[in-house]
Design brief:
By secondary structure, chain A is mainly α. Chain A is 53% helix and 0% strand. In chain B, the strands form five sheets. Chain B has a six-stranded mixed beta sheet with strand order 11-18-17-15-12-13. A five-stranded mixed beta sheet of chain B has the order 7-8-9-4-16, with helices on both faces. A three-stranded antiparallel beta sheet of chain B has the order 3-6-5, with helices on one face. The chains are: A mainly alpha, B alpha+beta. Chains A and B meet through helix 2 of A and helix 11 of B.
């Protein structure tokens, strides 16, 4: 899932996928703006067939936060 | 769908909601001039005109939306779009070097107000221009159903990068992405799961009590409308003045003041757009008896992926950003609430904006041509110019030209200047509805509220309003 998420991130920002870690922050490290994040998360919903609650979307600051959220969704 | 237009078969596609939004302005604006977007990019150096012509041609070849045509099926009335093949073009050259700058701007504004034949021909015009004081470059005018400000910026950058690569051994820029592919993707939205979710969100917003129109000049206009319609409870205003004529006044914020905003944005992890929206929202509240329920129409560029950033075209949507907050809300909480609502709006920004705005008015029984907001706002983090390493240090200027029309009461654009990064505020207003002095007044109070707010983030909205 991490690799798929990296692929998705690279559709939005010009970064080397190898530099993306779970600690990478969307805004400060990867250069996303608020709108990019919202769109990327919308695409992630379709890509991973997961429903992301709006309140939860806004709490996702790092790649790891998002992976944890996806993990929780899958387990639930 | 293959259509035969003028004896030639073209792959045609329906118009996107963003294009339909722009074309709706023709209906409300009643003239076509309102559809034009005019821009210029100039460098204070001698340019190689042949190389510039070559760069412009190559940029047009790479940018599908610069070759876009619109077509109205004469039998069904349906609207379609298609891209014509690239053909080498000879761009005219105009030498205005002995003219006064104001006069040149007047001419270029006039060109920008010349209507295109929307459904019958070419929808852009590019000319090479020499301005006074040794500035050389190009002006272009394009139909707003083909390009928006983000794609104008992308196109301008492409021209300059190609020009530099032709003359200065700079790398050739990466190709633009396909506009038609972006259209195809947009057209899959209708009937999708995403559309259902977005519709649910917007319909939920309309369950709130009827909003209140807040005019940027104060309560006078709503009072006048209430009297005119003999309805003391009326809460909606009018979208457009009778003639739709407009003017734009530009205010330049100093670099030091801009830095204060940027530093605040960084310190509190807030987008710059939210900070400015807070100031506009608070000024509307101040001018309208401290109203607590304010709508600003927020424009969304819808250019998040790398492909969308470089595909040209028009992708801008706009939606009502409504916030209801008591006057004892602190500045920080105000900004955080605006950010929350803006984030929600971003999530649901694929929804067709005309449908959303129409449903908003219908829900509360407001008639066609009415509105609950007097201000549209857009923040453009990109600048018109980028001159590349090869031309670094050479003075340059970029300019947006007025098309003379204004389809909404007030359109505020905040954009960073290319030369020093300071913010420019463009106030586009309807001349029948406000005087330049009233616009100055609005800018003055927006600025005061903005800076009192970032200096005192723990103060309440009431305290900020009273301080200003």
């Amino acid at each position: 899932m991490f690799d798929k998420l990296k692929e998705l991130i690279c559709q939005y920002v010009e970064v080397d996928p190898d530099t993306i870690t779970k600690d990478s922050r969307f805004i400060e490290d990867l250069g996303f703006n608020s709108y990019d994040i919202m769109c990327m998360l919308g695409d992630a919903e379709s890509e991973f067939d997961i429903t992301i609650e709006e309140e939860e979307i806004m709490k996702c600051k790092t790649v790891g936060d998002l992976l944890d959220y996806f993990g929780g969704q899958e387990n639930g | 769908m293959l259509k035969n237009i003028g004896g030639i078969n073209y792959d045609c596609y329906p118009l996107t909601p963003a294009q339909l939004l722009n074309l709706a302005l023709i209906k409300s604006g009643s003239t076509h001039e309102v559809e034009n977007i005019g821009a210029g990019q100039y460098l204070q150096m001698d340019l190689n005109i042949a190389a510039l012509r070559e760069a412009l041609n190559r940029a047009v070849e790479r940018c599908e939306s610069m070759r876009l045509r619109l077509w109205k099926d004469p039998e069904t009335g349906e609207l379609w779009q298609y891209v014509v093949p690239y053909q080498n073009e000879y761009f005219e050259y105009y030498d205005f070097s002995h003219w006064k700058e104001e006069k040149v701007t007047e001419v270029l504004n006039k060109w920008t107000s010349q209507p295109f034949d929307t459904f019958g021909g070419k929808l852009s015009r590019i000319v090479i221009v020499t301005l006074p004081d040794g500035f050389n470059g190009f002006y272009y005018n394009v139909h707003h159903a083909c390009m928006d400000s983000s794609s104008v910026i992308a196109f301008t950058r492409d021209v300059i990068e190609i020009y530099c690569s032709l003359l200065y051994d700079m790398p050739y820029p990466k190709p633009m992405s396909s506009y038609i592919e972006s259209v195809k993707k947009d057209l899959t939205y209708e009937g999708s799961k995403k559309q259902k979710k977005d519709e649910e969100y917007w319909h939920k917003q309309f369950e709130l009590p009827e909003p209140m129109y807040t005019d940027y000049t104060g309560i006078g206009r709503l009072m006048w409308l209430r009297q005119k319609n003999n309805d003391p409870e009326q809460r909606w205003g009018l979208l457009e003045s009778s003639d739709g004529k407009g003017n734009t006044i530009t205010y330049e914020l100093s670099v030091a003041s801009t830095e204060k905003i940027m530093n605040f944005a960084q310190e509190y992890a807030l987008p710059v757009s939210v900070i400015i929206l807070h100031a506009i929202r608070t000024v509307l509240s101040k001018f309208n008896n401290n109203e607590t329920d304010i709508i600003i129409r927020d424009l969304v560029s819808r250019r998040s992926t790398l492909n969308n950033k470089k595909c040209g075209g028009v992708r801008m949507h706009c939606f009502p950003l409504r916030t209801i907050m008591p006057l004892d809300t602190t500045v920080l909480d105000s900004m955080r609430l605006i950010k929350k609502v803006q984030d929600e709006l971003f999530i649901h920004a694929e929804y067709p904006p005309l449908k959303c705005l129409g449903e908003l008015c219908e829900t509360y029984g407001a008639p066609p041509g009415s509105t609950y907001t007097s201000v549209d706002f857009t923040y453009q983090p990109g600048t018109l110019a980028t001159i590349g390493e090869a031309l670094k240090g050479i003075p340059f200027k970029s300019w947006w030209y007025s098309n003379g029309k204004q389809p909404q009461p007030m359109y505020i654009t905040a954009m960073h200047r290319p030369n020093d990064g300071g913010l420019n505020f463009y106030f586009g207003y309807q001349t029948a509805c406000a005087t330049p002095e009233e616009i100055e007044f609005l800018y003055y109070f927006t600025g005061r509220i903005l800076f009192r707010s970032i200096e005192n983030p723990q103060k309440t909205l009431k305290e900020i309003i009273d301080m200003t």
